[in-house]
Structure formats: structure tokens, C-alpha cells
Amino acid sequence: MKIILKGEPIPQKRHRTAVRENRAHIYDPQSGLKNMVSKKIKHLALLELYEEKNEIDENALYLASNEVYYVAVSFYFSPPKSATRAKQTLSTWNLEHHNIKPDLDNLSKFYLDAGNGILWEDDRQIAKLSLEKKYANEPRVEIEVKKVNGCKISNTTKDVLQIISKKQFSEIVDEILLYAMEETREKYDQIAKILICLSKYHKEFSAINRKILKKTEEKNDN
Question: Looking at the structure, do residues 17 and 104 belong to the same domain, yes or no?
């Protein structure tokens, strides 16, 4: 899902303290503004779903608490008025970086909070976050949300991965392949298949996979 909020991006302001009846209370000075942005996000999200399903259902935004999300947010600002006309033009070609306030941290806080309960149940579910600031003739905020698909893994594979660390796995692959080379072709193929399956969960998958395939070619030559 991708939604576009027109207008200059809004940074998060610090929470403030007010004294009432001799007690200090912390409050968000942007709660009203954030609520307005949340309503706009919900409206745009429902329109996005309508285009996909040709129907608007308020319950369509029901979000599961166990989902995991990848979120990319792009903040587009108007070219600085104080800059020369040449620099303003260059900035819209993304040849001038947006390296002034507001910072990405405060920008993301505002919109991630505003998206709670709409684009995701809670922003703690965001496992991967991509942020960028740019200049554009049309200031806006673009928010793209994708669900992260969980790894489909058998109970047997999970049991193995629970007792072998990534470092240990890399170290024993050579020993297993050395053993497998002495076995029949059928048994070697079974062992290689298991190693390839397990290596998918390793960050060095490509290197390990190439090693297995190289040994497989040697086994074929024999």
C-alpha cells in the first residue's frame, strides 16, 4: 500500500509539561494536528483498498498484532526560498541534498505515530524502516507499507537451527561435504539438499551455496 499526503512534511515536536492542580502533566502539543493527519491517512488508505476491491469497508483496515512490516517514507520539501533560482531548480532534480532541519528522526516520529491503528496496529511492528528527505516542486509525504512474509520453515529444520549457530554451521559445512563425497551419489544428493535448505537462513547463503554446488560438480566428475 502506498499513500501520498500533500503538503510540507511535519516534524514531531517535543512533549510539553503543564501544571494542573499542583500536578505536572505531560502532553503532546501536536495531538490535534496528528489526529487530523491520521484521519487523512485512513481516508487515503480506504481509497487505496477501494481501487483494489471496488468497495470501501471500514473493517478492511483491521490489522493483526502479529504482522511485521517494511515501511519506506519519503519526505519532499519545497525548495528553500533563500536559495538562488539556479539552486532551487537543481534541488528539484535531486542534485541538492536536503541537509537542514527538520531531521529525519523527528519527521518519522510524527508520521509513524499518525499511522498507528491504520497502516499498522503499532509502530513497534515495523521491522525495517527506510527514510529519505528530498526537494520537489510539490511538497508531500509518501508512505509505502509492505507486509514482511515470515519464513516458511519445517519443524525439523527449526529444531536443527536451534542447536547450530550460524558460525558453527559455516565451520561444519566443509566437514559434512568431505564426508558426503565418500558416500553414494543418492546419499550425497540428500545431504547436499539438506545443506542448501539450511543455508537459506544464513547471511552468507550465496557463498555456502556455491561451495556446495562446486562439490556437487566434483562428485559428478567422479
Answer: yes
CA–CA distance, 98 with 85 (Å, rounded to integer) = 16
Q: Which residue has the higher pLDDT, 83 or 142?
A: 142
- The strand pairing partners of 134, in sequence order, are 76
Of 147, 171, 196, which closes a domain?
147
How far, in Å, CA of 139 to CA of 46, rounded?
A: 22
Structural contact between residues 139 and 76, judged by C-beta atoms closer than 8 angstroms: yes
Q: Strands 2-6, 16-20: parallel, antiparallel or unpaired by DSSP?
A: unpaired
Choosing from 147, 170, 201, the residue where a domain stops is 147
Residue 78 is placed in which grid cell? 519545497
Q: Cα–Cα distance between 195 and 160 in angstroms, integer?
A: 11
Degrees, nearest 5: CA angle 45-48-52: 140
Domain span at residue 18 reads 2-147
200 phi, psi to nearest 5 deg: -60, -25
Which stretches of 136-173 are assigned E, i.e. beta strand? 140-147
pTM of the predicted model as reported, rounded to 2 decimal places: 0.65
Judged by phi (left if over 0) then psi (alpha if -120 to 50, else beta), residue 97 lies in beta
Q: How does pLDDT run across 137-184, given as a tens digit for each residue? A: 899 999 999 887 655 666 776 777 777 777 777 778 888 888 888 888
